[in-house]
């Protein structure tokens, strides 16, 4: 994930200490019910499309923007699937971040899936019953996006 300019500016003042940030992930389905994933250039793993909203940017707008920037697919946001505070992450450079993940279900409306920036090594559509090696959190968010259920949150209040 490319670091937004506003975070680079913050890091000049706060160094490597913990930053609490919003994060938005998009579970994008096409008309055939397939899900759009990218293989990230930083981890080399398959993942949902996502990123950090710019200051003042709405989560749905962020999801739509990130999907297009990373995959060249146009989509519309349909609903919030999940909201969850994630565990802190320490990046290789020593920066520490903790994200409030907002996962949005989206529907593809145009464009051809392709690598559209330097954040992805590959981009592809997958049948939900034939996913590549994807972490459990990614699988859980896809499952929640498929369910006709209210927005999921951790009812225990723990993360």
Task: Give a nutshell description of this structure.
The chain is α+β, with helices and mostly antiparallel strands and 159 residues long.
Keywords:
3-stranded antiparallel sheet, 159 residues, 3 helices, single chain, alpha+beta
Any overview of this molecule?
It is a single chain. This protein is α+β, with helices and mostly antiparallel strands and 159 residues long. Helices cover 21% and strands 36% of the residues. The protein contains three helices and eight strands, in the order αββββαββββα. The chain has helices at residues 5-14, 59-71, 136-146, and strands spanning 19-29, 35-40, 46-47, 49-51, 74-85, 89-90, 96-110, 120-126. Strands 1, 4, 5, 6 and 7 form a five-stranded mixed beta sheet that branches. A three-stranded antiparallel beta sheet has the order 3-2-8, with no helix packed on it. β6 (89-90) and β7 form a beta hairpin. It is globular, with a radius of gyration of 15 Å. The two termini are 23 Å apart. The model has no long low-confidence stretch (mean pLDDT 94).
